[in-house]
Amino acid sequence: MKQIDWKQAPSPSFVVDERLLKRNLELLKSVQDRTGCDILLALKGFSMWSTFPMARDYLKGITSSSLFEARLGYEEFGKEVHAYAPAYADHEIDEYLKYVDHIVFNSFDQLARHKEKVQALDKHVSIGLRVNPGYSEVETPLYDPCYTNSRLGIPFESFKPEELDGVEGIHFHAMCEQNADVLERILVHFEEKYGEYLHQMKWINFGGGHHITREDYDVELLIKLINRIQETYDVKVILEPGEAIALNTGYLVATVLDTIKNGMDLAILDTSATCHMPDTLEMPYRPMIIGSGMPNEKKYTYRLGGMTCLAGDVIGDYSFDEPLKAGDRLVFTDMAHYTMVKTHMFNGVNLPSICLYNEEEGVKVVRTFGYEDYRNRLS
Ligand SMILES: *Cc1c(COP(=O)(O)O)cnc(C)c1O
């Protein structure tokens, strides 16, 4: 594969490689083709809408967890629009219903509150309920939908089989960056509790968190599980990954602005952990940089920090073969998902430009940001 010439990209910028995105989409489509299941893009994880014309050739539609995501999916993706939210506000539900064809409620009260409106529409919107399967293997509470006292999904104790009138689907989401063996174990718990109600449903949504495009993911087991559930209960399986669609398809290009010393070598970059890759602080995790090593693995180790005044705006410690100097380019990998969607302008720091890459056209800048974007968020 032809190497990207990073000097073509503005700094800082996100660069998504269309070749890699296409590879992920092809794998996801093969799962759809081999099972008849539907795969949706969860916009929460990846909403770079300049890629939607490509993604819509492969996926069934999108899923949204807010009114704006639903509208973006409706206007820019243009296939099925699903929605789930912990609660829908009365002043938003009418607009929501213009965009969606599936809507998932988080409680029987929400179902009762909005059901009449859904059923009075002159189009069919399929109603689902999100349940909490009561079992997950996510180790970070911030990302565990089944954590103690979770507000996400109806716990089995509150499930009311006598109130399922008009409900066509069941939804659960209990995974994060996991393989199919975790799904298999969740299904054991899910079926034990909710299996008997699945026979009367049209669809079952396994949520997101399936790391399908990761190298060691067990696609064959996923296909087996989908086929078994579809055959046992005569339902359609829906998956709604976000991360798996954009996994390992994008980069964040940054530049060293200065190097200083305080007990160790420090480098200040024209990007920011908190503004441009907040998951490095929240998850937390250590992004890779092309050509770098772990601290002290290579000759020159630096602590890389962002350009805000937040003391903790630190990306991590990295080592390099050569000393860093102002003007050097650093390229962070796997920066397409849960980055662009999470950026903000804290401290007045501008957002990275958004770029696409393909071999014919090279790096194309699709969006740059400026002072107006910062000012318009405030008043
Ligand atoms: C976040 C989320 C997803 C997508 O999860 P990924 O980890 O990005 O695959 C899907 N469904 C729901 C309900 C979510 O909250």
Automatic annotation (TrEMBL):
Entries under SUPFAM superfamilies matching the protein: Alanine racemase C-terminal domain-like, PLP-binding barrel
Domain Orn/DAP/Arg decarboxylase 2 C-terminal intervals: 136-335
CDD domains, alphabetized: PLPDE_III_CANSDC
PANTHER family, sorted: CARBOXYNORSPERMIDINE_CARBOXYSPERMIDINE DECARBOXYLASE, DIAMINOPIMELATE DECARBOXYLASE
Requisite cofactors: pyridoxal 5'-phosphate
Single GO molecular function: diaminopimelate decarboxylase activity
GO biological process: lysine biosynthetic process via diaminopimelate; nor-spermidine biosynthetic process; spermidine biosynthetic process
InterPro entries named in the record: Ala_racemase/Decarboxylase_C, De-COase2_C, Nsp_de-COase, PLP-binding_barrel
Signal sequence, start to end: none
Keywords: Decarboxylase, Lyase, Pyridoxal phosphate, Spermidine biosynthesis
Record-listed substrate binding positions: 243, 279
Organism: Lysinibacillus odysseyi 34hs-1 = NBRC 100172
Protein name: Carboxynorspermidine decarboxylase
